[in-house]
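Notebook p. 47: complex prediction with cytidine-5'-triphosphate.
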Amino acid sequence: MSVAAIVPAAGRGERLGPGVPKALRLLGGAPLLVHAVRALAGSVQVGLVVVAAPPHDVADVRRLLADHQVGASVVVVAGGESRTESVALALAALPPEVDVVLVHDAARPLVPVALVDAVVAAVHAGAGAVVPGVAVSDTVRQVAPDGRAVATLDRSVLRAVQTPQGFRREVLVAAHAAHAAHAAHAAAPGAGATDDAGLVELVGGEVLVVPGSPEAFKVTTPIDLDLAEAVLASRGIGGLLR
Ligand code: CTP
Ligand code: MG
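Predicted complex, structure tokens below:
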């Protein structure tokens, strides 16, 4: 089977604060995107990485990935207004022979290669859609708009979902096609989906959750970038965790 990875990297990173787009922010001297692509390329399974870049930065991102020796064939396309749109644009750029697709946030630069391999293995073992999930350590309480607590959720059945998410190509393509077909309507499926597995669920598909990794955390706010610097500094030369 031929495996390709899609990296949505076109977000602005508003929660991280002013500056260049989040995927281009530096971590240990290299952009978050470069770390993420290196981790994907670290899996022997992954032969191609398609990056959805901020539309104004496509040429810069191409140059950047050529200069940084990421270890895989890379294609860069312009991303869209939403993460879903960015993934759809990258999906349209995949060559025909690809039959397994990973989708991995540029904002998760420190994902261990072993997690990439585990997600691919679960798709190879027969799952149509696979997501890594980690246990929730805080108590999770549902609240009303006025701040009153409504309920305390049973966290033993909850998982915080990460990337890379893995799909049989036709499953991901069908989920995105259904989303695009309904996008014009107010109650579009996908309106409530923040990831690709969510789109698969909305069309009735099954999603398998495999164990995630604390190191696959997403860089969202400034403290996440501080944490990422500390984690990276604790790793060996090259910064890749196998
Ligand atoms: N993403 C994308 N295209 C968009 C929006 C997001 O490719 N139009 C990507 C981001 O670049 C990131 C991933 O989706 O790698 C996860 O999104 P998120 O963490 O929300 O990143 P941003 O949207 O950049 O951050 P923010 O929401 O704080 O602006
Ligand atoms: Mg966002």
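Notes: The mean pLDDT is 95. The CA atoms of residues 28 and 230 lie 9 Å apart.
Next step: compare against the earlier run before touching the bench.
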